[in-house]
Structures
1.
Amino acid sequence: MTRLAGRALRLTVFVGDSDQWHHRPLSSEIVRRARAAGLAGATVFHGVEGYGASSVVHTTRLLSMSEDLPVVVVIIDEEPRVRAFLPQLDELVGEGLVVLDEVEAVRYTGRPAG
């Protein structure tokens, strides 16, 4: 089990719900690769409204604009491990935003096995 305490880096990836990687959701591929890289954890959040560099608003309120809603993938781990993962994002993310923030991990515990 990965241990995480103290200073860490938060990697946040903003993409669209319709973004794909080899016919799979891009967010799922990012999570799959983060797990394969042994990163401490990854979470995907689905947004209900947003816009990005294109300034086109995507929202669940208008049926015609409910495609390509925002998706955010958050990964937190020690800085060297997160930075080592960045080249994979260069390969995966064609459109979107990738942000790094310094954070402090206060508690990181998993469920007991079994």
2.
Amino acid sequence: MKCHNAKFSIGQVVRHRRYSFRGVVFDVDPVFDNTEEWWLSIPEEVRPRKDQPFYHLFAENDETEYVAYVSEQNLVPDTSDEPLRHPEIDEYFERDENGILRERDPILH
């Protein structure tokens, strides 16, 4: 499988292209790295390609917060500047003087 450069970076806020949720990237897999059952559970007509980056997100929608695993083809940058409420964000990230999310020192968490 060919490895692609990731379009989004750790700490970047993104939105799902099709579904109503958004989140912050906390890890990136250069290609699909989840179970075959997970991949096959996605309806074939919207199933993403495996040969692209996949992102681990602290995600949220109007009702709840959760961790999501999303293909690059299904994400777009979120430019809303709306705050995120996922409880794990503050554990892994801090905002710099420009409001950008930066990873906290890994030794501290």
3.
Amino acid sequence: MKSKIPKSIDEYIENFPKEVQLVLQKIRKTIQKEAPNATETISYAIPTFVQNGNLLHFAAFSKHIGFYALPSGNQAFQKEISKYKFGKGSIQFPLNEPIPYPLIKKIVKFRVDENLEKVNKKVSKKKIQVQKKKS
């Protein structure tokens, strides 16, 4: 990839060879399908989806796709990601193996639900505080 920071996910994807572009676009479409209300952006110079906070990031490297579902996404899918190289908040999907789109779909759905739950807890907490003040 060129060294300048892309302004959009399209611009990011354009910087890679055609075969990698196809993988990146399919990952993007998988995320969009599971998180249709998410906003696309570039954060940390890589594609990012935001909905009620950061959902996830993904990036292409010479031999793998990095998928960053934050620590909670990895913790929830320990068994499924165990066959891949992974860290606290990252998973590496090798480009010379089939990309696990069904797993990506499950992780995205988990993160959407998790972020929504956090928002609902905050809203409930605020409602309780407002009710206490009125009492």
